[in-house]
Amino acid sequence: MTSFLIRCYPARWRARYGDEFEAILEERPLGPFDVADILLGALDAQLRLRGHGVATQHARRFTMSLRIGGIAAIVGASLIVIGFALIGGRTEGSETAAGIALLVALAALLVALTGLSAFQAHSNPWLVWTAFAVTALGTVLALFAGVSDLAGVGPTDWRDGPLAIGVVSVAIGSAAFGIATYRGSVLSRKGALSLVIGPAIGIIGATAVTQNLWELGMLLVLVGIGSFLAGWFTLGVAAIRLDRTSALKPA
Amino acid sequence: MNRKIPEFGRFAEPSLLILVSLSNGPKHGYAIMQDVEQGTGRPMGAGTLYAALTRLEEQGLIEPLPPVDRRRPYRLTAVGASNLAEQLRGLSEFAQMGLRQLGRTSP
Q1: Count of alpha carbons within 13 Å of A197, Cβ hemisphere only?
Q2: What is the DSSP letter of A91?
Q3: Per-residue pLDDT tens for B11-28?
């Protein structure tokens, strides 16, 4: 009976699923419901077994964007930490190294944003792509400012140049991306919240600094940067973990 | 980019049940059938299971792992996890709307 039922399926289907399907049918005795269900399944397979694999290719592209986005988020967040550590080190050449680290970090975060936006753009596409556009603009401006500064042609006060606009754009765009990610509920919601809260605290801190509340302002800026980096790092880890669900053992 | 939940026709419900079953780790076909029966109280036939599995695999929402004996486990892909979250969110919103309406009309 079992072999008759399996032979009702097309040969191509049997070549792919035949063994495992037979193993399932041997698990328990077949009742009338099972036989009817299998015959309907065979009819369905006969009717529709065409155009195999097109969508799989499509899905692979999404998985790749998730993987690249996740790795870039971790690299970007880590490089910013390294950049700040180099600035704090105050050794010879450390400022240039810090500048390069921060520029590469910004580029990595842009890659992360592109990859993760492509992955979750199906939910809240307007918000995701707005966040992407704002952050991309900010990153490009910040990169331009950073390269100008390294070349020694930037403004003497960074607040006069594109860096300020760039940093604020990156902060606002990242926060919007955090909201879209939080609403998407696929990647880490804690990471998304950090990405929303961090820029908000940072902007409040920067405003306090301009109002001569130096100590409080700097503290808030540091907390904001920490939250921002933790957000990107957590989202990166979440993306890679989502990509590697194979860590779980089969039942 | 606009990526919609794939249309599975009459296999939409079995597909959702399979995705939920795989959400806590890879399982082979018989384990999925047992899981679904335990969760819903209704059996899922092998024909229905494999019709849905075939579609899910074609759409890249699940992927096969190397077989253990003749049993082949399947796991949820990242795209599958994203799709499942979206479907469950939609169902949750629909259920909430229904409960709100019921609250307004019930005596």
Answers
A1: 14
A2: -
A3: 788 999 999 999 999 999
Paired strand residues for B73: B28
- Give Cα A138 distance to the centre of its chain: 18
Residue A34 in tokens: 């099972």
CB of B73 closer than 8 Å to CB of B56:
no
Contact A97, A108 (CB under 8 A): no
The closest alpha carbon to A231, from A185, A183, A189, A168, belongs to A189
Question: What is the span of the domain harbouring residue A44?
Answer: 2-48
Residues of A in contact with B76 (CB under 8 A): 245
Cα A14 to Cα A6: distance, rounded to the nearest angstrom: 7
B32 CB neighbour count, 10 Å cutoff: 26
Co-location of A148 and A238 in the same domain: yes
Instruction: Evaluate whether A63 touches A118 at the Cβ level (below 8 Å).
Output: no
**What are the domain boundaries of chain B?**
9-105
The answer to whether position A90 is within a domain reads yes
- Are A35 and A111 contained in the same domain? no
Distance of CA B55 to the CA centre of its chain: 11
Nearest by CB to residue B47, choosing from A41, A52, A184, is A41
CB B42 within 8 A of CB B33: no
The strand pairing partners of A119, in sequence order, are none
Q: Please list every residue in chain A whose beta carbon sits closer than 8 Å to the beta carbon of residue B6.
A: 55
8 A C-beta contact, residue A99 and residue A149: yes
Number of domains in chain A: 2
**Domain stops at, among A11, A26, A48:** A48
CATH number of B9-105: 1.10.10.10
- Please tell me whether the interface predicted TM-score (ipTM) of this complex is above 0.85: no
User: What's the CA angle centered on A55, arms A49 and A60, to 5 degrees?
Assistant: 135
Express each pLDDT in A36-79 by its tens digit: 889 988 888 887 765 454 445 555 666 777 888 889 999 988 98
Please list the ranges in chain A whose pLDDT falls under 50.
51, 53-55, 246-251
A-B CB pairs within 8 A amount to 141
